[in-house]
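Troubleshooting: if your tokenizer reports a length mismatch, compare against these two reference records.
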Amino acid sequence: MELAGKSIVLGVTGGIAAYKAAELVRLLVKEGASVQVVMSEAATHFVGPVTFQALSGRPVFTDQWDSRVDNNMAHIDLSRAADALLVAPASADFLAKLANGLADDLLTTLVLARDCPLLVAPAMNRQMWDNPATRRNVASLRGDGVLIVGPGCGDQACGESGLGRMLEAAEILDEMVAHFQPKLLAGKRVLLTAGPTFEAIDPVRGITNLSTGKMGYAISRAAREAGAAVTLISGPVCLPCPVGVRRIAVTSALQMHAAVHAQVADNDIFIAVAAVADYRPAQFVEQKIKKGLRAAAPTIELQQNPDILGEIAALPEPPLCVGFAAESENLAEYAESKRRSKKIPLIVGNLIGDGFGGDQNTLILFDDDGQHPLPPAAKIDLARQLVVRIAMLLEKR
């Protein structure tokens, strides 16, 4: 459980997105957090306090004059034991009050008197979000160190579409988990490739592999959690992009090659996780190859794809380069040989049978200090361990 032992105060303000806050409470509790819900009076018109009490297992506070706290100072006591205060949804009115230090109910008073970090998840109509007053308030809050989570873009309850809708509960959960991760890569820029490539033979056929992209996506999430600005160049996968990560979608090895070279400047770290096809058809057949029109199976001539990692590592001033080696045998021999031939400081090796395509993996890190096995674990846990190692190498560099 990623939030085990954490105490979270969840503020809920008035807005239709309050229904998402119920799911958020469920997810926070599922990850081990203790959740104390505080609602504005307006929020109770959308979702009743009983709902949040049932989901959190704790009484809900709505009234500034609630006498259940012995000293009658809920606005003081509720935040003192909290590890973080999260307001979701945060209405335009709430953001305006917060930016100007107003405190006219329990939640705004609690926020002003808090003794813990504050995260807010805005939720409002697109025009309210784009209003200059809201933009000024958000800029002011960021300047005060408040973490703004979202908003997202899409359909809104009013029937319009655009920026302003609250992020989904699972996305806010990821942001909360990220908040507690050490910021080992704060201020750094990371470029990363993930997934397979697809090398077209004709309009419907191609050469590819079984990579799901799960390891690369986990590393992009872990790097972003560690404070880095992350650009993910992804082959065709069925995975959502981690919150806060910039994704560039490509299909073929040549497209990935071009995208990496276009993005690599000013990056501190390049992590080549993608399972790039070593070869592509020398010639693309414009129309679907028909079996019945040929006396024998067609011959497909192949040509080698460029070595993306090797080219980046050979730049005059390369970023810190990290490679991956998925092998079916002789892992240590092949991985170390690949690392030395490309002259990179770190390569991550794994046997295909230990996690290729799954949610867990077993990795061995190879660098100048030798081999560093990482026991079997979920890919996000391994990704976080890898980020720690990368941060150490970057500091030595």
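Reference record two:
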Amino acid sequence: MCFVFKVSKSGYYKWLVRTPSKRELYNLFLFEEIKRIYYQSKRRYGSPRIAKELEMLGYKVSKQLVRKLMKKSNLQSIVKRKFKITTNSSHKYAVVENKLNREFTVIKENTAWVLDITYISTGQGWLCLTSVIDLFDRKVIGWSLSNTMRAKDTSLQLLKWL
């Protein structure tokens, strides 16, 4: 292998028994502190927050070094996405009467259907999945996918097929 990597045998054996440098030892110590803070924060803290925590503990460390040590060991913070409002409650349309009145137990098939719209993130963007479910046995009666939230593309398109 030394021949393949163009390294002398004596250099390889010297490398095997060498003692770590002060910087390596410090980075190992820092990495243990980073891991402790990372897991203590339930994997939510990224390199800037961890660097601040380390500074508060009295260690002089940069965000770049913390980022480098975290990246080296595949520690990534959990990023919470911003909440996106998708419902417009202040519309001018008539509100339909609630016939179920939150009574979702049904004793006969095909007496109560409910429609639900779910957003699905794909590589090309967001899609709207519209589905109709029978409340008796919770089976999906039908579904449709659309690129927009317009009723003609979601609910009405689905009801045409039923």
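Descriptive notes for reference record two:
- The two ends are 69 Å apart (CA to CA).
- The mean pLDDT is 88.
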